[in-house]
Amino acid sequence: MSKRILVLSTSPRIGGNSETLADVFIKGAEEAGHETKKICVYDKKIEFCKGCLGCQTTGKCILRDDAERIIAQMKAMDVLVFATPIYFYEMSGQMKTLLDRTNPLFPAEYEFRDIYLLATSADEEESSMEAAVKGLEGWISCFEKSRLAGVVRGTGADKKGAIEECGEALSAAYEMGRNV
After folding, report:
1. Could you tell me which residues come within 8 angstroms of residue 20 by beta carbon, excluding any fewer than 6 positions away?
2. Among candidates 174, 127, 165, which has minimal Cα distance to 17?
3. Which residue range or ranges hold the NADPH-dependent FMN reductase-like domain (predicted)?
4. Residues whose CB falls within 8 Å of the CB of residue 60, separated by 6 or more in sequence, listed in order
């Protein structure tokens, strides 16, 4: 059965290592017959959540920026995929800001069930990504019908393009996309 997949590339860098993993995931998913869409946040305006919680009653954020359109697309997808570089052992600030802005989804009827994380780090240790995984799991726990379905850890990607030398991570991202 074909699924609608939204890939959110949260790197601040065009063509970075985590975006490369996202593209490989997309290739696998499309070859398996799934419908994919990729949104890169490096050129989007996404303000910080104000914490007013108005969205909990209105279903809409008071802020008018690119997050509103992204959230609407997230709501309608079967699968969400977050791609992030790891900075200081955590997800990118862009990813965290986007997650915070999804508060209007909390009381909404959302379609997504499976959520994936594609992460890259300069550090060689897979444990360098645990805080990012935990952070995403915390967000997922607010969406009872959803689950973390898989994580790809692209370690040792210390400069732009270095992920191309990480065949295991590239292969894992491709296979994950094929097997969504």
Report:
1. 161, 163, 164, 170
2. 165
3. 4-123
4. 54, 68, 104
Token output for 82:
């977050």
Structure tokens at 111: 């379609």
Type of residue found at 177: G
What is the pLDDT, as a whole number, of residue 176?
Answer: 98
Q: Which domains can be identified in the chain, with CATH numbers?
A: 4-179 (3.40.50.360)
CA distance 152 to 136: 13
3 state SS of 14 = coil
What is the model's pTM? 0.97
**Digit-coded pLDDT (tens) for 77-135:** 999 999 999 999 999 999 999 999 999 999 999 999 999 999 999 999 999 999 999 99
**Which residue would you say has higher pLDDT here, 158 or 40?**
40
Q: Is 106 left (phi over 0), alpha (psi -120 to 50) or beta?
A: alpha
Torsion angle of C-alpha atoms 53, 54, 60, 66, degrees rounded to 10 = -60
Report yes or no: 169 and 155 within 8 Å, Cβ to Cβ: yes
